[in-house]
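Example for tutorial group B:
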């Protein structure tokens, strides 16, 4: 792990974007905070610039969360094919892309086309996971970050996350009581963490951390392994201060301390 930590830049580059740009596509009227949590986690992991792309229905709400996040909008209330032009523009700008935190009923064809046509690393999260599984998509640039409930979608389609990884070349970072990372069909577990990480929003936090590491140049398996470790250690630091009252933003604020 020390070897992986040493690969992270500890100061920003000489110009904006030198340590990565992360795009986040997600959110819905029921879950407007999820893309913002992922974006803030990416910033705390060292990303220079994060831009969110959310539906016009929640744009004003999401844009009010933090002045540190750039926020744009697509037309409509759900992610459909009509949003793809805006999504591809964001992917062209970014070094890593997050798809899914806070989505409700995204259009499967739109999710699949976005993943298939995007050349940068893509972190697929939350309710984008199920729609992404249909068809014969190549997954060699993806990391999936399911929780135990979302893992069931993968199991139903492929039998196990190991089989999914082997057949598609996707990397999986599964959050739960013990985080599991699967790459090339091989499973390993992450030993850091605390029961406080069951609180809402920590999955979005992991997604942002992993995307930041990808944008800074780490390979997918390394980003998944190190991302889970950083999340777990940050949760431990937050729990030491807040006990059972930890919330996701407490964990995000401890990420720089963990990396140091």
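The residue assignment follows.
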């Amino acid at each position: 792990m020390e070897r992986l930590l040493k690969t992270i830049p500890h100061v920003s580059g000489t110009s904006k974007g030198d340590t990565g740009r992360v795009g986040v596509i997600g959110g819905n009227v029921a879950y407007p905070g999820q893309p913002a949590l992922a974006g803030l986690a990416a910033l705390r992991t060292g990303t220079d610039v994060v831009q969110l792309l959310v539906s016009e229905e929640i744009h004003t709400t999401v844009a009010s969360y933090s002045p540190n996040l750039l926020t744009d909008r697509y037309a409509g209330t759900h992610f459909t094919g009509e949003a793809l032009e805006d999504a591809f523009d964001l992917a062209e700008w970014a070094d890593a892309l997050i798809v899914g935190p806070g989505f409700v009923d995204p259009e499967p064809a739109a999710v699949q086309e976005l993943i298939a046509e995007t050349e940068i690393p893509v972190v697929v999260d939350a309710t984008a996971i199920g729609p992404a599984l249909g068809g014969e998509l190549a997954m060699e640039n993806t990391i999936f970050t399911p929780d135990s409930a979302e893992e069931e979608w993968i199991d139903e389609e492929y039998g196990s996350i190991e089989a999914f990884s082997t057949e598609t070349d996707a990397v999986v970072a599964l959050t739960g009581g013990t985080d599991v990372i699967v790459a090339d069909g091989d499973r390993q577990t992450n030993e850091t963490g605390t029961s406080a990480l069951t609180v809402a929003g920590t999955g979005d936090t992991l997604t942002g951390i992993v995307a930041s590491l990808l944008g800074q140049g780490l390979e997918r398996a390394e980003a998944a392994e190190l991302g889970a470790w950083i999340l777990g250690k940050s949760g431990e630091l937050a729990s030491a201060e807040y006990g059972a009252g930890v919330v996701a933003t407490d964990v995000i604020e401890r990420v720089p301390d963990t990396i140091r």
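The beta strands are 21-25, 49-55, 70-74, 96-99, 122-125, 142-145, 171-174, 180-183, 186-189. Compare this with the pattern of hydrophobic and polar residues in the output above.
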